[in-house]
Write a structure and sequence with these properties.
mainly beta; four-stranded antiparallel sheet; two-stranded antiparallel sheet; 6 strands; globular
């Protein structure tokens, strides 16, 4: 869900073959990176300050970027 509190759940299509998942602050600092995150799961974001972040999901064919709100 977005906004997220404590944990971020994700599920990717098997066809995407995710290679990495990162969360970046709006100032450009990489605050979290997971290599080979798998098809689904949860990410602990309880250490992130409240605010708006960007995320990148890197997969075999490119990158999907989005906005994440942490409450």
């Amino acid at each position: 869900p977005n906004p997220a509190v404590g944990r971020l759940s994700f599920e990717f299509s098997a066809a995407l073959q995710p290679k990495g998942f990162e969360i970046i602050s709006l100032s450009g600092q990489k605050v979290l990176y997971l290599q080979n995150p798998g098809q689904s799961g949860q990410i602990d974001i309880s250490t992130l300050s409240k605010g708006v972040y960007l995320y990148n999901m890197v997969y075999a064919g490119g990158v999907v970027t989005g906005k994440l709100v942490v409450n």
